[in-house]
Amino acid sequence: MARAVFTDIPPSEDAEDGAAEPRVRRKPIIKGGATSSKYIAAATQGGSDRTYQEIFVDQIQDSRIKDRIDINEDIESLVESIRGNGQQIPIHVRVVQGDKPYEIVVGRRRLNAIRSLGHTKIKAFVSKLDDREAFIAQGVENSARLETSYIERARAAGQGIAAGFQQTDVSQFLNISKTMISFMVRTYETLGEDLVTRIGPARTIGRRKWDDLLKAMQKRSLSPAETAKLVDPEIADSAERFEALLKVVKNPQSVGSADQQDLSKVRKPSAAPQRRRFLNGAIKTMRKSNQLTIKTDETIPDELLEKVYEKLEELTFKLANKRKE
Questions:
Q1: Domain range holding 283?
Q2: pLDDT, tens digit, 9 for 90 and up, residues 269-286
Q3: How many helices (H) and strands (E) does the chain have?
C-alpha cells in the first residue's frame, strides 16, 4: 500500500556507494548543495501527489536527458552496498503514458545497480510531474551533487535544447547563465554525441581544455568522426583519455602521418586498473598494463582455470609463430 510523502528529499545518488574509491570533487553548482532552498523546492515538486512505493524495474523507462555519460562508472561499490545492506535511498520516478508507466527522474545509477543484481522491484518516490517539472527537478538534484563534469553538463544542456526546452529552463536546470549555456551547447553540438561519449566524463577537464580541443580540431580540419577514431579506448581513466587525445590532435607529428596514426606510439598516462566481477563475485579479474589477475572462490571448479591456462598456452604459441614469420 502506498503512503503519501511530502517532505522526503532524495539524498545524493552516491550516498549509499559505501567505500567508493576517492574521486576528484568539485563544489556543488548550487550554493548549499542538498540543503539549499532551491534544491528542496525542486526535490519536493509535486509533493501532494508524491507517494513511496515499490515498483517493478521493468516498468521504468529512461529519461530523455542523460545526466551522466557513463552510469556504470564506479558502480561496483554501489552494487556491493545494496547487496549487503539493501537499497537505502529510493529513486524518483514520474508517471508517464506509454508501454512503461514510469520514467526515471533521479537515481539512474541506483536503478542500474538494482537491475544488475537481478532484483525485480525497487523502492521509489512516485510523482505526477509534467515534462518541465521533471526536467527542472532532475537538473537541480544534479546541481546539488558533486561529481558531474563540464562536458556532462554541456551534454545535458544540448539534449535539453534539442528536446524543446527553453534556454531559461536549461539555465535553471544547470543553475548557470544563459551565456554559459550558449557556450556549452555549442561545445557539445560541435563535438557530437559519439566523440563525447568515447572520451567520457573527464571530470578534471574544464571548459578551457575542451575549447583547446575544438581549436586544435579546427586547425587540423578534423571532423568529430575523424577525431573519434583517435580516442584510445585502452586508457581507462576518461580524463587521461582526453589528455592523450588532445596531445595527438595538437601534435600530429608525434604520431606519424595523418593517414597512419598509431596511438600506441603516444606516451600514455598510466591507466587505472580495470576490475570486473562475474557470477556475483565468485570470479574476480583485474587488468592493468602488462598484467592480468584472475581470482576465484571455492564455488568455482578448478577446471575453469585450467581451461583459461590452456587457452593462454594456445595464444602464446600462435604469437610465437607469428613472430617467426
A1: 274-324
A2: 445 567 777 776 788 887
A3: 12, 9
